Amino acid sequence: MSFNPGPESRFRLVCFPHAGGSAGSFFPLVxxxxxxxxxxxxxxxxxxxxxxxxxxxxxxxxxxxAADALLAERDLPTAVLGHSMGALVAFxxxxxxxxxxxxxxxHLFASGSRAPSCHTGEARPARWSDExxxxxxxxxxxxxxxxxxxxxxxxxxxxxxxxxxRALAAYRPAPGARVGVPLTxxxxxxxxxxxxxxxxxxxxxxxxxxxxxxFPGGHFFLNENVAELLDLVRxxxx
Length: 238
Description:
The chain has about 240 residues and is α/β, with parallel strands linked by helices. About 35% of the residues lie in helices and about 15% in strands. Strands 2-1-3-4-5-6 form a 6-stranded parallel β-sheet, sandwiched between helices. Helix 1 links the parallel strand 1 (about 10-15) and strand 2 (about 35-40). Helix 2 (about 60-70) crosses helix 3 and helix 4 (about 130-140) packs across helix 5 (about 145-150). The chain is globular, with a radius of gyration of 17 Å.
């Protein structure tokens, strides 16, 4: 969904949310977006206005749906940003887009996630009970803590969280999977799941330029660093 479409848009930022998240997670980016930047939030099936659609508990399936939708959009220089689980969906989406429309994506920003090659299947889908999901959210802090404290919100979010954690547990990248566009990894300095020490693991997943940026904050550091993120996107898109 494009939050701010317009004929004056010069480039596009497509945003993939975290596990249990929605396109609305990126409203702070939309509000702060400079003129000429169109922000698109990817809405996974089974939530909010897509709640009547069957959920997709598979990273590759989510990527196929997103790639098909983006191929239907008007041609515009496009960067892709994915946060947490969304970084993996974004990575696989870019790979599909490169096959179907070379040059469609100019840059990939992978935020708050371990590299695809680090997903070895240690956590099996059956292990993701509601209790374990809640414990995982509590360990992430920030948005996770706020969701846990909202009983009604947590109850409505749990079905999507179950599907997304199953998708994460089952995810396997293709051997040697990589993209052909520049890749920038974004990490929170205090992120307990994907901190600065994990950023370089992404480097083998691109055939183009690689760099990473460390921001203050934990797993949901993007919420507190919107202006800095948009500056980085603008610089990389020039």
